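Lay summary. Proteins are chains of building blocks that fold into shapes, and those shapes determine what they do. In this project we predict the shape from the chain. Here is one chain we studied, written as its sequence of building blocks.
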Amino acid sequence: MTLDVSPFIRVRSGARPLIALHGLGGSSSQSLTLLNRAVLDQHDVVAPDLRAHGTNEMPFDDGRMSFAALADDVRVLVDSVGFDEPPLLMGVSMGAGVALQLQDEPERFAGVLLVRPAWAWTGHPSNLDAFPVMASLLGRYPVAEARQRFLSSDTYAGISAISPAAAVALLAQFDERHAVERRARLTAMPADAPRRPIYPVLGFVLGTPLDPVHPLELAEQVALDIGATFELAPPRYNEPEAHRAAIASALSRL
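And here is the predicted shape, written in a compact code that computers can read:
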């Protein structure tokens, strides 16, 4: 296990500790945008930039881009912060998979909220096919051309047919300043999968409609498999305020 600590943003408005884990290609800022004022007022939030994301400059290769490796990084972070009590754990998309990987030590966390999980227990899920496509384009063309080719692809068109907003959200992968250097994450993570917990998970799984990258039925499957409570949330891209309110509601009941 690395002894390095992931960089993080901490918002200490409230007392109850909360670790917020972002999605693939996201950052700590993404995690914080999903928390409304009520959540921030009630919690001591730590939102890390996971390896190969955001401001995290820790070295990585395919061997350090896995759910097991990212979970190791989060364990180091939790120990370094030194909360007075076990924190709540919230994971979005890839972050939900990291949170699942951490459930082999359920005593570390007071409760778990999984938001729009995109992985179950096997790698290469078809809902994540867009990510290796983007990685390939970033490896073959200048960023602007890669972006345009993705916009013109059948992959993009298929996602846009279900949710134009979800398709547009994927374009952020081309906008990050390390998009080319970090493109390996877009193949390594979809190829991996979190380990299914052996204990029932105390918490909630939020799924949404109109999100082909994070299928509703996958969220329902994950909730059933881990013994957590499934709840339907408004779609993030179409109703962002209502989506944040659903997250706040679930966190208040953990």
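What the prediction tells us: The longest strand covers residues 16-21.
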